[in-house]
Design a protein that fits this description.
By secondary structure, the chain is an alpha/beta fold. The chain has three domains: about 100 residues, Alpha-Beta Plaits, CATH 3.30.70; about 120 residues, Oxidized Rhodanese, domain 1 (3-Layer(aba) Sandwich), CATH 3.40.250; about 60 residues, no CATH class. The strands form five sheets. The chain has a five-stranded mixed β-sheet with strand order 4-1-3-2-5. Strands 6-10-9-7 form a four-stranded parallel β-sheet. The longest helix has 26 residues.
Length: about 325
């Protein structure tokens, strides 16, 4: 941990300020994206910001966390790049830093579908504001599709949504081809966590000839932030890719925890299962792992706890 990291956490503890979590993505033409990595990584380090940012020729994607000043500095840096001037982000808070380190990575895609020539800048589905989403998905003629992976859908989704049961986003195009949606004029409403997967998913659907494709603007996160719980059609929690594990209405942290063995979210009910052991197993992975695997996971978990305790002592000294 750098000095700026420790300073950020110490200031957060003494001022009682929550950690700001910013989720962002923007599709743009970035032919020189490699040159952006080191200046961006250096700024994040100086600002005490952690998380993951992905850079590719097609744009930027990621989630970062830090102090108000640190997040603002990184967002300003990104928006100063002409192609990213219109970058939007979604904010929530965490009671402690939800990331262990900062990673700025170069990728071939900022969200990996693996289908050549699918370009969201050339045309995506129609955006639907969260306030209008309930009316669209309540129409019995609308086909509602959750574009996320099965482990995400397992802890929450919109009422009546189809689950493609994918383990990676690369499987989504194959699912569409075999889903049997024959009437290509029917309205199709698609959603994902923050909106980025739907940019490619709706572009793919349109390329396949589906005529009336829509997606939730800002994703589930924006819906949970803006739509009152008493009016919501969302059921359960929304998985997020950080140590908060999941959020619910009002972007409050959920009750799920992460299985350190398989990285699946574990609900409160599953935590009561005899197959759940912190750091070693859960109902999702117990039967696919051996006793030797669980022994190794226990050792790794003890080591992680010891490292965290040592780092906490160092931060407080």
């Amino acid at each position: 941990m750098t000095g700026s990291d420790r300073s950020t956490e110490a200031n957060s503890r003494t001022s009682n300020q929550p950690v700001i979590v910013a989720a962002l993505y923007h599709f743009a033409r970035l032919p020189d994206h490699e040159a952006l990595r080191i200046p961006l990584a250096d700024l994040c380090d100086r600002s005490g910001v952690r998380g993951t940012l992905l850079l590719a020729r097609e744009g930027v994607n990621g989630t970062i966390a830090g102090s108000r000043a640190g997040i603002d500095a990184v967002l300003a840096h990104l928006r100063a790049i002409p192609e990213l001037a219109q970058l939007e982000h979604k904010e929530s808070t965490a009671h402690k830093m939800p990331f262990r380190r900062m990673k700025v990575r170069l990728k071939s895609e900022i969200v990996t579908m693996g289908v050549p020539d699918i370009d969201p800048l050339e045309g995506v589905g129609a955006y639907v504001d969260p306030k209008d989403w309930n009316a669209l998905i309540s129409d019995p003629d609308t086909i509602v599709i959750d574009t996320r992976n099965d482990y995400e859908v397992g802890i929450g989704t919109f009422k009546g949504a189809m689950n493609p049961q994918t383990s990676t986003f690369r499987e989504f195009p194959g699912w569409v081809e075999n889903a049997g949606i024959e009437d290509k004029s029917k309205p199709i409403a698609m959603f994902c966590t923050g909106g980025i997967r739907c940019e490619k998913a709706t572009a793919f659907m349109r390329a396949q000839g589906y005529e009336n494709v829509y997606h939730l603007k800002g994703g589930i996160l924006k819906y949970l932030e803006n739509v009152p719980e008493e009016e919501s059609l969302w059921e359960g929690s929304c998985f997020v890719f950080d140590e908060r594990v999941a959020v619910t209405h009002g972007l409050r942290e959920g009750d799920e925890i992460l299985c350190r063995a398989c990285r699946n979210p574990v609900t409160p009910e599953e935590q009561s299962s005899p197959l759940y052991e912190e750091g070693a197993s859960c109902p999702h992975c117990y039967n696919s792992r051996t006793d030797e695997d669980r022994k190794r996971f226990r050792m790794r978990h003890r080591q992680m706890l010891a490292e965290r305790a040592a780092q906490t002592d160092k931060d407080q000294s």
